[in-house]
C-alpha cells in the first residue's frame, strides 16, 4: 500500500512578504524613534513648566537674591526655569535629529541656551535636573512606540 501526498506551498509569496517586511521595518522603527524624541521633548517641557525635574521631584528653590531680582522685574517667582522662554523655547521638535541607526538626539538650537541648560542641569548648586528621563517616562514612551509600530505594520498587511 502506498500513499501519495502532494503539498502545494506559497513559499514564493511568503518570501516576497518577508523581503517587504525587511525593507519596511527599519523605516517604521526610525519614524517611531523620531516620534519618541518629539514625545520626550514635550514631556521635558511640561515637567519643567510644572517645576519638577525628570525624577518627578520639585526643583530646588531659587536663591533669595534671584527671587528679589524677579520680584523687582514683576516676574513670577515659581521655580520653573522660565525667565524669557529662551531655554525651553530652544528645545524644539526640530532639534530632534537622527544620529544613528534607530537613534535620535535631543538638543538645544542655540549655544546661549545650551549654556543655560548646562548651568541648571550641572553647575548650579542645588542642581535642577530637568533634561533627562526616568524609567516611568521611558515606559510611557516605549508603550507609545510599540503602539505606533504595530499600527504601521497593520497598514502593510504583513
* Helicity range: 55-70%
Q: Whole-Å distance between the termini?
A: 42 Å
Principal-axes geometry comes out as elongated
Sheet-strand content, in percent, reads: 5-15%
Helical stretch tally:
5
- How would you classify the quaternary structure? single chain
The number of E-state strands comes to 2
Using only CA atoms, what is the Rg?
A: 24 Å
Largest sheet: 2 strands, antiparallel
Low-confidence spans:
none
Describe the structure.
By secondary structure, this protein is mostly helical. Helix content is 55%, strand content 6%. It contains five helices and two strands, in the order H-H-H-E-E-H-H. The protein has a two-stranded antiparallel sheet. Helix 1 (11-50) packs antiparallel against helix 5 (135-155). The longest helix has 40 residues, at 11-50. The radius of gyration is 24 Å and the shape is elongated. The two termini are 42 Å apart. The mean pLDDT is 86.
List keywords for this structure.
6% strand, 158 residues, single chain, two-stranded antiparallel sheet, mainly alpha
Q: How is this fold's topology laid out?
A:
Layout lengths: L10 H40 L13 H9 L13 H4 L6 E5 L2 E4 L4 H13 L11 H21 L3
Antiparallel strand pairs: 1-2
Short account of what is shown:
With about 160 residues, this protein is mainly alpha-helical. It has five helices and two strands. The protein has helices spanning about 10-50, 65-70, 85-90, 110-125, 135-155, and strands at about 95-100, 105.
Amino acid at each position: 500500500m502506498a500513499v501519495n501526498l502532494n503539498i502545494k506551498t506559497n513559499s514564493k509569496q511568503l518570501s516576497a512578504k518577508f523581503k517587504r517586511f525587511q525593507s519596511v521595518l527599519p523605516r517604521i522603527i526610525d519614524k517611531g524613534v523620531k516620534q519618541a524624541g518629539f514625545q520626550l521633548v514635550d514631556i521635558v517641557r511640561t515637567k519643567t513648566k510644572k517645576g519638577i525635574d525628570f525624577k518627578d521631584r520639585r526643583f530646588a528653590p531659587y536663591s533669595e537674591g534671584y527671587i528679589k531680582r524677579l520680584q523687582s522685574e514683576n516676574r513670577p517667582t515659581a521655580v520653573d526655569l522660565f525667565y524669557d522662554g529662551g531655554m525651553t523655547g530652544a528645545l524644539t521638535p526640530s532639534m530632534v535629529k537622527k544620529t544613528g541607526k534607530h537613534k535620535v538626539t535631543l538638543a538645544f538650537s542655540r549655544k546661549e541656551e545650551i549654556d543655560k541648560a548646562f548651568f541648571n542641569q550641572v553647575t548650579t548648586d542645588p542642581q535642577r535636573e530637568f533634561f533627562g528621563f526616568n524609567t516611568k517616562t521611558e515606559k510611557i514612551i516605549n508603550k507609545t512606540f510599540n503602539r505606533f509600530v504595530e499600527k504601521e505594520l497593520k497598514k502593510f498587511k504583513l
